[in-house]
Design a protein that fits this description.
single chain; 351 residues; alpha/beta; six-stranded parallel beta sheet; 11 strands; disordered C terminus
């Protein structure tokens, strides 16, 4: 009898978690285990100390992820410690735990990547620095995976320009963004308004002039109803207070489906948010801080088969010859620096 492969799906935010769940459903021949996003060593210490709350390592995302996994009665292996996995499917490579270094890994793009700002260039120049300093702008740059499933040909070109090996990239689409038209069927009560989807820039230590952003939205709305959908990682009380001050009369939503709101709006305003692709795919008038022509070229493929396509890539990796999949993977830090960092961290945090 052929052994059922054990596959670990590493989740993160609800968006990442639901994508992993959809991929697993397309692999009925395998045994599935799921974990919240995790790290080890110093990065895990940061999480335990409450210093990673702005990221998917933080307790807020972990608890939401675990709640979803329990709600759907999915097998949980927090940290991937229970089994010797035949394959790992992960939502991000910003952190590569050491127990993945000898595993077959499929990386799946989660959505829009952050712009290439200051920390991106610092991390690219000084390779010993952790990639998470530059957030998702360094997605794919661990090279610690066998295949990288991306949203579109436009994103394939972007990741190749950043240095990802072309042969590792598979244009599959991504599950939560491969059929935007399904959002047209919704019960959100408002229609024909100007929608602003905010980002968590300030919570992730990026600069944002929120007052200028709100006033720009008021100018674009030009008297039409304004609705703000806040990013789930935002400081809601601060963001709501600012909107009430600079855009009186605007409605503010801290929960609900942003995709349904976009489907009903006339105009979509975003800064750095994957929701912009919903607006583009549905033909909305869109404003973004990214170049719109570039965004249109990167819009995720709309074929509704992303999870099936990614599952096919997983089967390909599971069946690949060992010589093709076990190439050396890069460590996060060069050995001398890694050893020094370990010693310093141990001295600082052992007492």
């Amino acid at each position: 009898m052929t052994k059922r492969p054990n596959i670990l799906f590493i989740c993160g935010s609800i968006n990442q978690t639901t994508q992993m769940h959809q991929i697993a459903q397309q692999l009925p021949e395998a045994t599935h285990w799921f974990s919240p996003y995790y790290a080890d060593g110093f990065t895990d210490w940061l999480r335990r100390a409450g210093l990673a709350e702005m990221s998917v390592l933080g307790d807020k995302h972990r608890n939401r992820c675990l709640g979803y996994l329990k709600l759907h009665d999915l097998a949980i292996d927090d940290g991937g410690k229970r089994n010797d996995y035949d394959l790992v499917v992960t939502c991000s490579d910003l952190v590569i735990p050491t127990n993945l270094l000898d595993k077959r890994v499929v990386l799946v793009q989660e959505g829009m990547t952050d712009p290439e700002e200051f920390w991106y260039h610092v991390v690219k120049t000084f390779r010993f620095l952790p990639r998470w300093l530059a957030s998702t702008s360094t997605t794919g740059l661990s090279h610690s995976y066998d295949r990288f499933c991306v949203a579109s040909e436009g994103y394939r070109q972007l990741f190749i320009r950043k240095g990802v090996t072309p042969a590792k990239i598979a244009v599959t689409g991504i599950p939560n963004f491969d059929n935007m038209r399904r959002f047209l069927d919704n019960d959100f009560p408002h229609r024909h308004f100007v929608l602003v989807c905010t980002s968590d820039s300030r919570e992730t230590f990026k600069f944002e002039n929120r007052k200028a952003f709100i006033l720009d939205a008021v100018r674009i709305a030009n008297g039409r109803q304004l609705i703000f959908k806040l990013h789930p990682n935002e400081n809601f009380s601060r963001a709501t207070r600012e909107i009430n001050r600079w855009a009186p009369g605007a409605l503010v939503y801290t929960s609900g489906s942003a995709e349904h709101m976009i489907a009903n709006c006339s105009v979509l305003i975003t800064k750095y948010s994957s929701t912009v692709y919903v607006g583009i795919a549905l033909g909305k008038e869109v404003y973004s801080w990214f170049d719109l022509d570039e965004l249109r070229s990167q819009c995720p493929d709309q074929h509704g088969r992303a999870a099936q396509n990614i599952a096919a890539v997983c089967r390909e990796v599971l069946g690949a010859p060992a010589t093709a999949r076990n190439e050396p993977r890069k460590s996060l830090l060069p050995n001398p620096v890694k050893q020094l960092a370990t010693v310093i961290a141990g001295r600082l945090f052992s007492s």
